[in-house]
Amino acid sequence: MKYSELVSKLEKKFILTDIQIHQDNEINTIQIGNGTQPHTLYIEQAVAGPLKLVSCADHACVRCPCISQTSTNLSNQAVVALFNDANEVLAAEQQQEALFSGILQYSLTHDHQAVIDFAATQLNNTLMIIDDNYRVLAYSHTFPFPDPLWQQNIDQGYSRLDFIQGIKKMLAQTKPSAQASYRFPCPVSPYQRLVARLYFQHELVGYVVMFNDQQDFTVAQQQLLPRTGQVLSDLLGRAAAFKDYQVSVRAQLLSDLLEGINVNAIKVNAQIVGYTVPQSMCLVVLKAADQLARLCQKMRERFPEALVVVYQERVVALLPGSLPTLKKITWSDLQQQLQCQVIVSNCYHDFFATKAQYIITRHTEKLSLQLQDQAQLLFCRDYYFAIMLDRIKQRDVLTAFIDPGVQQLQQYDLANQTELIMTLAQYIRCGGNQTITAERLFIHRNTLLNRLHKIEDLTGLDLKDSQLWFQLECSLQMQRLLASLNR
């Protein structure tokens, strides 16, 4: 404890005058009498006059309020009272330092969850970390939360509106400080809350909260809470638990959607940050080996109204707009600009279907690898049928649904090194247009006609019957998927 800190605490009970502090020395012990040992506070009394606090060259004159301030002769009782009170203050400070040192030491070898549990034990109270979007990041498991309202906060992932309003009031009425803690009464709960600001990289990132009901918070809890919070803030910051500080508050909303956090909590948060849910939207996922932050920035510049966030080592963007509006985007140009794989969902209207759309994009990514599709621009709608097939657990039964004609063509191609299966697939994709099919296959139209006649002769199918095309397309998709799985 610093000499000035001890003097400041003693001033609350004793009358101190003639205070001189030349160097703010550290005080470790207190003794009665004269001496010059470093880090020691000496309490001495002259033959006549007031008591003196002496720490090397620093000193203060002390008058006990229990006697007349004009008295020059002080009894031994005053010396003992001052000695005991000073020792009590110093002992409390040293105990706090020991507790904090233990928490700090523990944090060097454990993750944030273990540290918050250990800190709750040391402070003998529950702890919760909330970011500056009022999202619950972490909480102690050492004790059950006494307040059922705050258990609801844990369940929904966000703090209550009364706490949000209290925080905003605190920000307006207090100066920014990483060392102070503040009491928060709750109008709908008998439980008291003690709150301290959290900073990471000199930015306000959240709050650490402590709860109590029957007893008031101790001085040690009030002083240790902000210091403990900073230890946890550093751990959570290094573990990327706090949001990317370059990302807007709205981006956190997308992260919560992808995590599938409680619907009501997301609605509250959207209202807090002033986000208007679009009537129609599209999800775009960017896959790259590195430079995700750069891709995020480019997407924000290209689509200012989009929600963009890094999630599961992908850049995910939610683009508002109707299908005709989004069609104006040249997706191939976007892929060339970003130089990464771009996966585009179909347009959808339910904001809370975003997680499901993201899962579909990841299935599309996986199937493109299985099917050896080297394309860097993928549309989920092109993989819907394959995704449905991929979700069937008993895949061996799929063979029974493949048209016999398709199976026959496959065997013929293997035996004769022909390309009848590929020709049939392209013919169906081109809607039976023979000219376009020939161009896509880079063959003469007569060659195409010969192949189509061969297919009809082998299978007995009438390729002019468009009602067969869906059945054949399903068979081709199943055959392709099964072949990729076998590989």
Automatic annotation (TrEMBL):
It comes from Loigolactobacillus coryniformis subsp. torquens DSM 20004 = KCTC 3535. It comes from the Bacteria. This is Transcriptional regulator. Pfam families: HTH_30.
